[in-house]
Write a structure and sequence with these properties.
By secondary structure, the protein is of the alpha/beta class. Helices cover 48% and strands 12% of the residues. Helix 2 links the parallel strand 2 and strand 3.
Length: 303
Amino acid sequence: MKDFSKYQGIFPAFYACYDKEGWVDGQAVRALAKYLLDKGVKGLYVGGSSGECIYQSVAERKETLEQVMSEVGGKLTIIAHVACNNTADSRELAAHAESLGVDAIAAIPPIYFHLPPKGIAKYWNDISAAAPNTDFVIYNIPQLAGVALTVPLLQEMLKNPRVIGVKNSSMPVQDIQMWRDEGAVVFNGPDEQLLSGLAAGAIGGIGGTYAVMPELYLEILRCFESGELEKGREVQNECCRVIYKMCSTQGNMYAVIKEIIRLQGGPDVGGVRAPLLELVDSDQPIIAEAHEMIQAAIAKYRG
């Protein structure tokens, strides 16, 4: 039986890193990867929603992954999201990821045109075939992709020996239980329910806010593993309050997160790419408050 221990833990979704002109900045990519390595996370999820993948070219996504692997490859478990809205580009990214030695690739279903399950399965299997020696993770995020994973579709995909499981970003915790019952490894996606997802059988978590407060998510995992569920609920609630605060700005949440990382003494990884909204002046007090909330929670629960 295959050992999936390398997937057990906290995986921050890696943010897009830009220079002052708005282009991918390899030095910033490496700095952010090193910053997260030093925080003690298990791995990184590169090229997904937090990486602004749908707004980047194939070349930019390759550059980001190359820099991540150069900095932390072999030190962290790396899952590379390779989906584009066409099969050819997705296969190119999958083959490239395998050539770099990533641990797994992942893909959302095609967006805009809602394909039938047979079409989605072919799309995913065609991508997997371009990286035949690499684990494959289905990315289920129906609220953005517009298509939801179903049990029959998962059963069909599990016929592919490279398919190991699901990054589940749907909100019902029940979905985690369903995918687990089919024999899939499941990563909890919604950050607001990491503790619930772990209780439902998730092997770990992949989250868009993990990198701004990894200490707190690592503590939730520790509390779950040690049976300290009441403390785990307290930390989860603190994370949720921070998320709600960060979402109350006019600028995009990833722009908020990048600013907070700078306030924490982390690397400057730029802003966000249009059409995502940059920060406005009225966002700064909210950002400062969210930063203070994070620091207070870390001091309380990890101090």
